[in-house]
Design a protein that fits this description.
Elements: E1 5-8, H1 14-21, E2 25-28, H2 38-45, E3 50-53, H3 61-65, E4 72-75, H4 85-90, E5 94-96, H5 103-118, H6 121-129, E6 150-154, H7 158-168, E7 173-177, H8 183-189, E8 192-193, H9 196-202, E9 205-208, H10 222-227, E10 233-236, H11 245-253, E11 259-262, E12 282-284, H12 293-311, H13 323-328
Parallel strand pairs: 1-2, 1-3, 3-4, 4-5, 6-7, 6-9, 7-8, 9-10, 10-11, 11-12
């Protein structure tokens, strides 16, 4: 009897996917930093029973229609806006993600990006490396204090809560805006719920952690940035399209806000000529929110196990489309 066929769209740890190889024929795109071309993905989908995908892989209606044997899609991320989940459900395909396991790792990166942006860490490190440090002066590369400031978190999910915990260690006042109020979180962490507009006006630091939906696309517009303090620092570790990048660029150039720390962009990867990257008051990272060796390994293992469980006619650990269970039964 032939084993089911699984395609993995990026080079992963052999050890992490070893259990999957016991139940399936596994083919892996051999590149680590180069995305699988669309035409290759389409060809592989024709014979795939399972696909392990990255956020950069577009799993749309066209691809799903091209994959008659497909039973499961496992996305190496918490988000799944790259997948047409509704259509996958219609076709009886399980969609899985990797929630929870990356919460603290992403919160660490988020707060590190906030600190690096506020205190001009990257700019200062380059200043030394380029041989520009000639003497000490009182305001040499002076940044902004983080302690005792007001932090506004837009999107109070698990990562938002983890970031709030870290902020409390810096004696920050934490405001938040979310589609639904979280009383338990307020009681546990002392965070304060407020409207989106009030958060923008009151916060010294604004962190965006919302998922990408039709409601959050272009959430941060030119109007949003004009409402912020001129000393405000904007941090985005959610998804690029929640921000109007042209408006952000103009706000930074015109001094409407002080700085921005960005781990995500509208189109990724970006070129070094991207307008935002050319600004000295922008810290730009290559979408590494959950990128620690430990966490990425766990994410790989979870994806592999989810595929294995579905291929063995069992319920996966982290199922996105719960309706699939009804289709399955």
């Amino acid at each position: 009897m032939m084993k089911p066929y699984v395609f993995i769209t990026r080079k992963l740890s052999k050890e992490a996917i070893k259990p999957l190889e016991a139940v399936a024929e596994v083919h892996m795109w051999p590149e680590d930093e180069v995305a699988v071309p669309r035409e290759v993905l389409m060809e592989e989908a024709k014979k795939a029973d399972g696909i392990l995908t990255m956020l950069s892989d577009k799993i749309d209606k066209e691809l799903i229609d091209n994959a008659p044997n497909l039973k499961v899609i496992a996305n190496l991320a918490v988000g799944f806006d790259n997948i047409d989940v509704e259509y996958a459900t219609e076709k009886g395909i399980a969609v899985c993600n990797t929630p929870d396991v990356l919460t603290d790792t992403t919160a660490d990166l988020t707060f590190a990006l906030l600190l690096a942006t506020a205190r001009r860490i990257v700019e200062a490190a380059e200043f030394v490396k380029e041989g520009n440090w000639k003497s000490w002066s009182p305001l040499l590369l002076a940044g902004h204090d983080v302690h005792h400031k007001t932090l506004g978190i837009v999107g109070m999910g698990k990562i938002g809560e983890a970031v709030a915990k870290r902020a409390l260690g810096f004696d920050m006042e934490v405001l938040y805006h979310n589609r639904s109020r979280k009383i338990e979180t307020e009681e546990k962490l002392g965070v304060v719920y407020t409207s989106f507009e009030d958060l923008l006006e009151a916060s010294d630091f604004i962190i965006c952690l919302t998922p990408l939906t039709e409601q959050t696309k272009n959430l941060f517009t030119a109007e949003s940035f004009t409402k912020m303090k001129k000393s405000a620092v904007f941090i985005n570790v959610s998804r690029g399209p929640v921000v109007d990048e042209t408006a952000l660029y103009e706000a930074l150039v015109n001094g409407e806000i002080a700085a921005a720390g960005l781990d995500v962009f509208v189109k990724e990867p970006i070129e070094k000529s991207h307008p935002l990257v050319t600004l000295p008051n922008v810290v730009a990272l290559p979408h590494i929110g959950s990128s620690s060796t430990e966490t990425r390994t766990i994410m790989m293992q979870l994806c592999a196990n989810n595929i294995k469980l579905v291929l063995e006619s069992q319920e996966p650990e982290t199922l996105v489309n719960k309706e699939w269970l009804l289709c399955k039964n």
